[in-house]
Design brief:
Layout lengths: L4 E3 L21 E9 L12 H11 L3 E9 L10 H9 L2 E10 L9 E9 L5 E9 L10 E13 L2 E9 L7 H16 L4 E7 L16 E3 L17 E6 L3 E7 L11 E7 L2
Parallel strand pairs: 2-3, 8-9
Antiparallel strand pairs: 1-4, 2-13, 3-5, 4-5, 6-7, 7-8, 9-11, 10-11, 12-13
Helix pairs in contact: 1-2
Length: 275
Amino acid sequence: MAQLTLSASLLGLILAPAAHASPGSGRGVALRVATYNIHAGAGMDDVFDLDRQAATLRALHADVIGLEEVDVHWGTRSQGRDVAAELAARLGMHVSFAPIYSLDPEQPGGPRREFGVAVLSRYAILAAENHEITRLSTQVPHPVPAPAPGFGEVKLKVRGVPVHVYVTHLDYRGDPSVRVAQVADTRRIMNADRGARKILLGDFNAAPSSPELSPLWRELTDADPHANSFPADVPVRRIDYVAVQSGAVRVRDATVPRTLASDHRPVVADLLLRR
């Protein structure tokens, strides 16, 4: 199994949660989360601009953010930079990166070329794992569905409440067969984790009513923002999700902020973690 890259924030400090989060009550603990497909750092105009994306992420005021389409030394489209680490440093957050692809460097001695998903967190990341789910590779000729990494999980403790946050990017093809397998893998992995609140973030590349997603809603609640997220300029599809463990996590509100910093819009949800 591919290994997960972990780092703390710039100073390595355990950071306080966002200012909006209350200490909680006997009923639960507040947590703001977001998911955002960052299009490898490029906006709707296809211009790579991390300043713009960092400003967009900062404006979400989220405690935990799942990122999809994240480049780490991937190539010229993202200037060979470690996008995950740079965004975390700019926001003063901890980061966990889970590569889907990890390729040999173009030049001997260079860093590996990686692409995947990431979690940014204001809370210390206590543990992390890069799970394998079924994928159809875009990096090899004539691919066949096979297990591959890129389903990231981090374990947090939010004001004493254990939380598992997962981030995923499901297959984009019109044929839903790979997504069907990915949903089955996702449920198997998440159901094996016990004793913590669970939150799933990601780009599912399917509408909420799609048959391939229906098994997810047996255990999870869709934080429906009642707005589309793709494409960013004139959204006509809702394919980006915050989904939470039914009965253990309550959705208080969800929104889709307007921005052209990526080809997707982010989804933000205010949650209450039941004690």
